[in-house]
Amino acid sequence: MKAKGRIKRREFLRTSGAAGVGGWLSGAALMRGFEAEAGAASTKPESLEQIMAQLDAISSQYPSAPKDEGRFLNLLVKATRARRVLELGTAHGYTTIWLALALEATGGSLTTIEILPERVELARKHMADAGLTARVNFKQGDAHEIVPTLTDPFEIAYLDADKGGQVDYFKKLLPRLLVPGGLLIAHNAILLADKMKDYLELVRHHPDFDTVILRAVEDDGMAVSYRHRKAA
Q1: How many other CB atoms are found less than 10 A from the CB of residue 73?
Q2: How far apart are alpha carbons 130 and 112 in whole angstroms?
Q3: Taking the alpha carbons of 46, 106, 36, 78 in that order, is the dihedral positive or negative?
Q4: Which of 118, 114, 82 is nearest to 100 (CA)?
Q5: What is the pLDDT of residues 3-39, one digit of tens each?
Q6: What is the CATH number of the domain that holds 106?
Q7: What is this structure's pTM?
Q8: Are residues 38 and 106 in the same domain?
């Protein structure tokens, strides 16, 4: 017997299959899928669609990943079943919502760091509107100073703060704050590759990492680095 308010996984896969092999699901189908994965969703799918549409409309005012990259991050969290995720660069909370939605499915939590207090305030509001506040731990301040104070390691770390500071973030995350088998993901690895040159060279040649540049959109990509479970 189907539980009230839930979509069986097979039913979701069958009804959403019309998107086509390799195609993205429509917004409505995607949000239904999030609700099915998460179990008892705290926000109705149509409300989430409205929130994401509002954030899309103001995305040009803030540094943020576009929609397809948000979906890609969501997929990575669910595919790896990550339960502890770190985000550097909250902005207005757009990718924060995508990550938190995935963590609804895995039962995990997100720590997100943003240097500007007005952006933290805005992101908190968006997270509350999405019903995802319980999944997110906001920290306001300089990530270069905050990261060393963190205690528990993460399975995924997403870097979307100052591009010139990524080598420093790497050194402060490793080896203590990224678990063996974890992912280190850096945004803008194509569009801002020149600003990230030192970081990209570091992760591409580091003996403890395998790194690929993956595209979810036409003009940009993410450097996805897998930390070996055993040091080379």
Answers
A1: 26
A2: 16
A3: positive
A4: 82
A5: 443 334 333 333 333 333 233 333 444 444 444 444 4
A6: 3.40.50.150
A7: 0.77
A8: no
